[in-house]
Design brief:
There is one protein chain. The chain has 187 residues and is mostly beta strands. It has a single domain, classed as Lipocalin, CATH 2.40.128.100. It is built from no helices and 11 strands. The strands form 2 sheets. Strands 1-2-3-4-7-8-9-10-11 form a 9-stranded antiparallel β-sheet, with no helix packed on it. It has a two-stranded antiparallel sheet with strand order 5-6. Strand 2 and strand 3 form a beta hairpin. The radius of gyration is 18 Å and the shape is globular.
Length: 187
């Protein structure tokens, strides 16, 4: 907004999703996601949802799914001082709770015996505030070092149409690290 740019490593995201196949092509899913982002003054975003999906492609090396459903989003923003030109104005804390539609697609591909690529895009039109939406995009490359250990690099982008006053609506993250796999993964 004010040509202010910042880099932060104070971002914590996590979540869990379970899929259950009800036929060769159809599945149901449930999920919950959590996010903390100091740069956005986001103390907690908790999203709980579920729905139905369809395996468009389901082969040994590739799985492409489309899905849709509903979710409940809770966002808790802390109070903050505006950046220049008026760094003395305190913005109040904000709590937002809203129903959402979930629409998305996910792709998982095995690129070789030890390397895989996953990608997911989700769109969350807000049912409580017409015209507002949230969108998430994540892509991850993972190379297995052992069956239970891998090295990964992830790019993520979260966009919201209604950020708190003075904050940007787009937040991008690039991370790398070790990945632990419990049970049998996608590939």
């Amino acid at each position: 907004m004010n040509n202010v740019s910042s880099v932060t490593a104070h971002n914590i995201t996590g979540g869990i999703r379970g899929d259950l196949n009800v036929s060769d092509r159809m599945f149901v899913f449930a999920f919950t996601d959590f996010e903390y982002n100091a740069f956005q003054h986001l103390d907690l975003r908790n999203v709980i949802g579920g729905g139905f999906g369809y395996h468009v492609i389901k082969t040994e090396n590739t799985q492409f799914d489309v899905f849709g459903g509903a979710s409940y989003n809770q966002e808790y923003y802390s109070s903050y001082l505006l950046t220049p030109p008026d760094p003395t104005t305190l913005q109040p804390a904000i709590t937002r709770k809203s129903g959402e539609i979930v629409l998305g697609e996910s792709l998982a591909m095995k690129l070789g015996p030890r390397t895989s690529l996953t990608e997911q895009f989700s769109l969350y039109p807000n049912l409580s505030s017409g015209g507002d939406f949230r969108a998430t995009f994540d892509v991850t490359a993972n190379t297995k070092l052992k069956n239970w250990l891998g090295w990964q690099i992830t790019y993520g982008d979260i966009y919201i149409t209604n950020p708190p006053f003075g904050l940007k609506g787009n937040d991008q993250v690039l991370s790398t690290g070790l990945r632990l796999t419990f049970g049998k993964g996608t590939f």
